[in-house]
Amino acid sequence: MAEQMAVLQQLLLATLDPRPSVRQAAEQQLTAARQTDLGQFVGSMAALIALDQPLPGPQGAPGSPEDLLIAKQIAAVTFKNSISAKDLTLDGAAAEAWRALPNETKADIKKQLLAALHTDCIQVGNAVCQVLAKLGVIELRSMEFEGLLPALQEMVQQAVSCQQQQQQQQQLLKACGRHALTCLAYLCEELADIVSEGEDPSEVFSEQRCNVVLTAVLLGLKDPDPQLKVAALRALYHALVFAKGNFNKKVLSTSDIFENTFARKIVQRLQPDCWGLLQKQRFREERDYIINSVVEAGDATNPSAVQVAAFDCIVQISQEYYSLLEAYMPAMGPVRRECSRGWRQLHLF
Q1: Which InterPro entries does this UniProt record tie to the protein (predicted)?
Q2: How far apart are CA 278 and CA 253, in angstroms?
Q3: What torsion, rounded to 10 degrees, do the Cα atoms 218, 172, 238, 86 define?
Q4: Structure confidence by residue, pLDDT tens digits, 24-78
């Protein structure tokens, strides 16, 4: 297996070779392998992406961690291009070819890809996020890959509750949380593109699934890590089109909370000690909670990148739910000014 992976790594790296003949030969070999057996092809890509140890180089030379990271990125792009295409007809055919693979093969591949998010390499993480998002677009609407959203939410939960871990482990868990939120952003962005073509948002992405995304987003926004906040805000930006049910919710009573998955998860995760007090309290509107979290992220005490991402969300909220925002204008005004200042600082150079 290791020898096969080493050969595959060299083949993938050859696609970047400056010599046209070497590059073209590698690309042709990969194309032939994909056309011969798609399942084996994408399975091999997923297996390489999930590796955590460098592979031997040519003629048994010591493995290079840098080569493996580059090969992982190429493998992820190659995988994504094998199950999707820019042309709508070809894209549909590629998705059908994926769906036709044996369920066991697909399950193993998805498990490996989720495991591959446990990396502190931003480039590899982003590449894998795009693959998982594409699989989500293909499968979620047909009630498959149901474990994707809960798995991503759990990664965010681990990222925001890792204070007791050693520093190196904390850094890895934070990176995983950022990857998870990035994956949610990619997924919601692609699904939002489908909505822009005229489909009903609730038919594309259910309120129940949107609740999972919003739970992960709000967990990320409450974490002090600026990069986690930015990733959460980007996910929220693309998820807003699917959050109409949350923005239109009236105040929830105590009994409503126990019946509302989104509200219950937020309270349990962010305020576990206060859960019992809800017998005598009322939970804020979901809309309040979301908007207030974005407003807090846009505060001047946060880094410029967080402020700018918060401002983008405020603009998107205004576009989607303008009729509901009159009560929030006094709070949004100062945030817009601070975010504009943050944007100028971020783009000063």
Answers
A1: ARM-like, ARM-type_fold, Importin-beta_N, Importin_beta
A2: 9
A3: -160
A4: 999 999 999 999 999 999 999 999 999 988 877 666 666 789 999 999 999 999 9
Query: Do residues 83 and 94 make contact, with C-beta atoms less than 8 angstroms apart?
Result: yes
Alpha helices in the chain (DSSP H): 2-14, 20-36, 38-49, 65-83, 88-99, 103-116, 122-139, 148-160, 167-196, 201-204, 207-221, 226-239, 244-247, 254-259, 261-270, 286-297, 304-321, 329-346
223 DSSP assignment: S
Q: Which amino acid is at 234?
A: R
Question: How is 99-155 classified by DSSP, letter by letter?
Answer: HTS-HHHHHHHHHHHHHHT--S-HHHHHHHHHHHHHHHHHHGGGT--TTHHHHHHHH
Contacts of 82 (CB under 8 A, 6+ apart): 34, 38, 41, 42, 45, 94
Dihedral class, residue 252 (left if φ above 0, else alpha if ψ from -120 to 50, else beta): beta
Would you call 90 exposed, middle or buried from its count of C-beta atoms within 10 A (0-12, 13-18, 19+)? exposed
The gap from C-alpha 25 to its chain's centroid, in whole angstroms, comes to 34
Q: At 283, is the secondary structure helix, strand, or coil?
A: strand
Write down the pTM of the prediction: 0.85
Dihedral pair phi/psi, residue 205, rounded to 5°: -150, 115
- The one-character DSSP state at 64 is -
**DSSP assigned state of 349:** -
Phi, psi at 84, each rounded to 5°: -155, 165
**Which residue is listed with tokens 């994504």?**
80
Residue bearing tokens 């871990």: 165
Q: Is the pLDDT of residue 229 over 50?
A: yes
CA quadruple 253, 160, 239, 301: dihedral, nearest 10 = 90
